[in-house]
Amino acid sequence: MLLLAFDTATPAVTAAIGETNPDGAFTLRASASSVDARRHGELLTPAIQGLLDEADLDLGDLDHIAVGTGPGPYTGLRVGLATGHALADALGIPCHGVTTLDALAFATKRTGPFLGMTDARRKEVFWARYEDHLTRVGEVRVDRPAEIDTEGLPLVGDGARMYAELLGADPDAAPGTGAFEPLHPDAAAMAELALLRLHRGERLPEPAPLYLRRPDAVEPGAPKKVRQWVK
Q1: What is the pLDDT of residues 155-190, one digit of tens each?
Q2: Looking at the structure, do residues 157 and 194 belong to the same domain, yes or no?
Q3: Within its chain, how far is the Cα of 152 from the centroid?
């Protein structure tokens, strides 16, 4: 079973092709990631084609697609979801949704509790609590870092790194020491997680965006009355 996974809900543009055999053993065929918050639309399609070339595959060889559903900034998130829907419709294969924070958590392989966080902008973070890399407790939330009770648990993700001091963590933790890592979701982990769930017979959610805020854009109200002064 071949699956293409990708995520554009964070500054990272990440894509991967994974495969499972009948016993459920996972093999990563190809993966690529880059961090550029302004070029999701430019980077994703070439990245997918590059993976297919590296794995010596055609689009028609794919059996499933998995796409990150966020939460994340509107524009970047929609790039991945629109691409997932378009490819699935063209190929006639299923497209599944995977919560971006769940993919981030799965990549940690942690066996104990921790918090996963991504940057939500506006001085807020998207976050969730996990019992281990496979088990989320409750729903994903959006809050200001100072309002989150971290319970002294390990923190994972770029959102945690950005607001480490407000969260009670060491803001000077050196890169490469494992502090806050992984910072961004990795499609290789997303592919493995999606294939694991499919092999177990679980029903993956629809690839719909996970929005935790009302949109900034609103319909304009009635025009204000302007008084005219006559001398």
Answers
A1: 999 999 999 999 988 766 545 556 788 999 999 999
A2: no
A3: 24
60 and 135 share one domain: no
Number of domains the chain is built from: 2
- In angstroms, rounded to a whole number, what is the distance separating the alpha carbons of residues 117 and 220? 34
Residue 51 identity = L
Query: For residue 174, what is the DSSP state?
Result: P
Structure-block tokens of residue 109: 């392989």
| Structural domain of 156 | 110-167
Q: What pLDDT, in 10s, does the model give residues 73-123?
A: 888 899 999 999 999 999 999 999 999 999 999 999 999 999 999 999 989
Q: End-to-end CA distance of the chain, in Å?
A: 81
Residue 209, CA distances (Å) to 70, 158, 187, 188 in order? 6, 20, 17, 20
In a domain, 207, yes or no: no
Token pair recorded at residue 136? 């989320």
Phi–psi pair at 20, nearest 5 degrees: -125, 145
Rounded to two decimals, what is the model's pTM? 0.88
